[in-house]
Amino acid sequence: MRVGLQVYSIKNRLKADPYKTLEEIAAVGYRAIEMANHNAYEDIGTGFGMPLDEFKKAVDSLGLTVVGAHIMLANGKENIEPFYKDLDHFKKIIDFYAALGAKTLGIPIDFFPDLEYLKQRCEVYNALGKLCKESGIHLLYHNHWNEFALFDGVTIFDHIMNNTDPEYLGIELDAYWQIRGLYDPAKVIRKYGDRIDILHEKDFPLERIDYLNSWKNLDKTVPCNWDTFHATTCPDDFIEVGEGMIKVQDVIDAGNEFDIPYILVEQDYTKLDELDSIKLSYNNFRKMRGLEWD
Q1: Which phi and psi (to 5°) does residue 277 adopt?
Q2: Residue 176 CB partners (closer than 8 Å, separation 6+)
Q3: Angstrom distances, CA of residue 152 to CA of 65, 220, 222, 247
Q4: pLDDT along the chain (294 residues), means of 10
Q5: Is 6 left (phi over 0), alpha (psi -120 to 50) or beta?
Q6: How far apart are CA 90 and CA 124, in angstroms?
């Protein structure tokens, strides 16, 4: 399993100076990166306006591999329906990343008010995934904690897996958010390992243990929406890989049982400078076994 970086971890530096930040990422030692385009209506590519040829030249010169990208809208709330159903527009995004040699595209977050809506979304995921597959790309669903709400006694996450074709939709499993949803990521990996292409990792600070359970004041039979999600998300609840209470080595060991190719640092929030943050996670990963560096 290779260590990489979801560039959302260094989003502010990347936006301010993309060329310099890519150099800094490579200088830390990362070789695999996943992009985070939250402006995918206006920009089909990087999310920070760098043309395909310039971006490809930059990553190639730095020895960086673009493994994929998160594709969504700027705020995640508006125009979700037409965005994911606009296959012509999505094909342009696919073409951009296929030209970079990327093998995955990820749906970074979604919300489901009821089971019928969820099943309709699964049809959309299958359609997008089929389109991706035609270009050699695997569409992935990236979880948070909200997918562990229950519809008819079954988690939303399981409903998604049960109602999508593995050929068209895989998993980008975020271990941190699994734990926040009160599920052991190692067990979920062993249940769905054949569908997982990428693992995401950050850590949870031990001193915030009373806030670990995202469902603490919520009813698991009532689905979460965007506003609920943000109301229960606190920057204090994030810390760098290896600095908190998550058993990261267990996640790595389970992932290696299924030859999952990548585990990526995704630091949503940090109290450190972004560059110092990704350095700390990288250095802590270096102390763990079962990882590859190239």
Answers
A1: -65, -50
A2: 200, 201, 202, 203, 204, 238, 246
A3: 42, 11, 11, 31
A4: 98 94 98 93 89 96 97 63 81 96 95 94 95 97 95 96 98 97 95 96 97 92 90 95 97 98 98 98 98 86
A5: beta
A6: 12
